[in-house]
Write a structure and sequence with these properties.
The protein is α/β, with parallel strands linked by helices. It is built from ten helices and 22 strands.
Length: 373
């Protein structure tokens, strides 16, 4: 397939216009390409968006451990410009996590829309005091043996795991797990020294920065300040306008620069369904009319109901610069899970995952592996 006159953002995230040849699901070449093709004038091509932290959408949840639910999530994401995602679990029992891992492994490759890049284990090795909307019945100390069992059941596609490093003797766990996937600090009460030690041991990520972690103050950096201060740590940000206020997001992007922010949805099955009562990790959650996120019965913020393409447009409206906003939804999350050579930007040799929009970034067409979704 040849696409002519494509206005796109290249691997350096600079705008250019060229022809594009797609073959066997990948971008074969970019430049002046001989032959007939479809004229793409009037549209803007963005790299397919990558959501590395999403629990569910459109009535499906990755923790349901069912193909039907994964299909709902995959199809929903494709409509919203997300071409790859990490199926994200909650803090659950061992057998349930094993079942989720096996289901995702078997489903991968048969997606109805967005591709599964891997699995994100949000817990269960977290701090009770920072459990947030995670089910306290399943919070437990970290175990290399349990992690390895789940990792093996997944077919070695676990890309991220969230832990609270202070909640158990975590040094050996971090050293071991970080050789297989990214280890993230989250749902944690660690102080600055404990957080820094975890990064020194091999942790490289912060789960939904600001939420369910120790804050930065002028006397104690906490996890937030320590993560911001480490130039090799990727920081997740929920940019639905409710989890983090716009002023804080603007300041955070100024600190992180254009290479370390990872926009995530952290969405759950209520995404796209409006107000109502839903289930998340075995607990009832509620979406209020006009709400930006789900809440537990006691009002605790639970998951988001957004998607990262809408969050990208939020960032632009909040005053975050275009390049930083775009990279935080595409190449940065791809790098965070070690898949930047396959997805996250428009370049020869990479998957032909492309989102075509109008000049106002309204989605017109989405291509996943060169096939229109």
């Amino acid at each position: 397939m040849i696409l002519k006159n494509v206005c796109f953002y290249n691997e350096l995230f600079k705008k250019e216009v060229a022809d594009m040849e797609i073959e066997n699901g990948k971008i074969k070449g970019i430049g002046v390409i001989e032959g007939d093709g479809r004229d793409m004038s009037g549209m803007v091509a963005l790299p397919g968006f990558v959501d590395i932290h999403i629990h569910g959408a459109a009535g499906g949840d990755c923790s349901d451990a069912s193909r039907e639910s994964l299909d709902k999530v995959s199809a929903f994401l494709a409509k919203h410009g997300v071409t790859s995602f990490c199926a994200t679990s909650m803090t659950l029992g061992h057998d349930t996590l094993m079942n989720i891992a096996k289901t995702v492994r078997e489903y991968r490759g048969g997606e109805s829309g967005a591709k599964i890049a891997g699995i994100n284990l949000e817990g269960p090795f977290i701090a009770m005091s920072k459990k947030g909307a995670q089910n306290p019945a399943y919070v437990r100390a970290g175990s290399v043996e349990e992690f390895d069992e789940i990792y093996s059941a997944s077919g070695n596609i676990v890309k991220l795991i969230t832990i609270a490093p202070e909640a158990f003797e975590s040094d050996d766990f971090i050293k071991h797990a970080s050789k297989k996937c990214a280890v993230s600090i989250g749902h944690s009460a660690a102080n600055a020294a404990e957080a820094q030690h975890a990064f020194d041991m091999g942790a490289s990520h912060a789960t939904h920065l600001y939420n369910a972690m120790t804050p930065m103050t002028h006397r104690e950096a906490g996890i937030v300040g320590t993560a911001l201060d480490n130039d090799k740590v990727f920081c997740e940000l929920i940019c639905d306008g409710g989890h983090i206020c716009p002023a804080v997001l603007r300041n955070t992007f100024k600190i992180l620069g254009e290479n370390r922010a990872c926009v995530i949805s952290d969405s759950m099955r209520a995404a796209g369904l409006g107000a109502g009562e839903f289930e998340l990790g075995g607990q009832k959650v509620y979406v209020r009319e006009g709400g930006k996120y789900a809440v537990l019965e006691d009002g605790t913020i639970a998951a988001s109901i957004s998607n990262i393409f809408d969050e990208f447009k939020n960032l632009l409206s909040f005053g975050v610069d275009f390049k930083s906003a775009l990279k935080s939804c595409t190449i940065n999350p791809a790098k965070a899970i070690g898949m930047e050579d396959e997805i996250g930007s428009i370049a020869p040799g990479k998957a032909a995952d492309i989102v075509f929009t109008d000049e106002n970034f309204n989605i017109k067409e989405v291509y996943i592996n060169g096939i229109r979704a």
